[in-house]
Design goal:
The chain is an alpha/beta fold. Helix content is 36%, strand content 14%.
Amino acid sequence: YDKRELPNYGVFDEKRIFDPGEGAMPVFDLGGVRVGIAICEDIWFPRVPSALAEAGAEMLIVPNGSPWRRTVQVERHTTFSAWTKTGVPYLFVNQVGGQDELVFDGASYAVDFDGTEHQLLGDFVTGTALVSFDGETHRFAPADAPTQLSKGWEAEYRAAMLALGDYVNKNRFPGVVLGMSGGIDSALTAAIAVDALGPERVWCVMLPSKYTSSDSLEDAKACAEALGARYDIINIRPGVNALDEMLADAFAETQPGTTEENIQSRLRAVTLMALSNKFGHMVVTTGNKSEMAVGYATLYGDMCGGYNALKDFWKTEVFELAKWRNSAVPAGARGPGGEVIPTRIITKPPSAELREDQTDQDSLPPYDVLDDILRGLVEGEEDVDEILARGHDAATVRRIEHLLYIAEYKRRQAPPGVKIGGKNFGRDRRYPITNRFRDD
């Protein structure tokens, strides 16, 4: 059987690779039951289920490579309208595991002729379920009780865990190394890494400069120790001083600014990459979706690495996910329970600490405001007027929209990261770097 309905939207590009199947729909006998095959999106549209029903299929087996996203369970169980017109029972059998930006959650289930659902397997884990099918009543009879699926923050955390763990393991890295700043992004990334790989495969490195606060030094160490991960301090001040001296003549007639701030970030990247080259650990970046949206990141600095577990989490979601992890241990986690992210990391104002008394809000609006604007622009595909109708300041909205578009060149060079929401940067949202499609 060759798949008929080829998705070609969002993260899918099947028409670039495959031709749709043609010809008769094969139906075969399995233990006295006539069985048809429909692959993934074949069941979303009337053509394939109807043809299989007409060919005598009493049950469908539907193998899937259906990637997870936070709304996927609702979509799976409500969008198969084509099936409801045939009333043919089916088995939904889904892939499990991470594949670059996508994560597949499994969560295989069965549906009787009247729409009764049987959740056979859990999410984010491989497994086997025994289920019988009665050809006379057209009903499934699972051997075990229904499995409960993850919801809310647990599901999102487990998706990030599986995606990062599989990326590291399938590409044969011995472990990961990350810059541990004492901030919430690196703390949450470290927690996800420890839960995915185990503390013995996670290396946290604090890379302080003269602007690093004592609170950050204390918080980074406390977090790494709570997680049980290796923790080291490598001071970048000698490197910063050497570069200041090297560039002194070229910069003689200028004032210090963003360039000098970015030198610190890039020195941290050079250091982490040196550790990666020497010991084989993959560098994990720690930026969130809010920062990537507006370009609040340093190219070849904090963007330098192999994978980003937080790439599709807005900053406000990072805070909530960190709070959730402190209150729960996700199924399958290799890390400890309890407060693995110190409370002060969650409550203190976010700062890149690249200059004196710096906070993120020196450059950006408060994250609840920023994220609402960005959700509208990116995931909702709203225009400025629609966002202004929610009461946002006009100058702020227009500035954020401008930053979103001019940061495309940075995002194009960012490492991959797991898709969590409805529209991620990369495979979902594809814009040209060089363009004139905007009025300004």
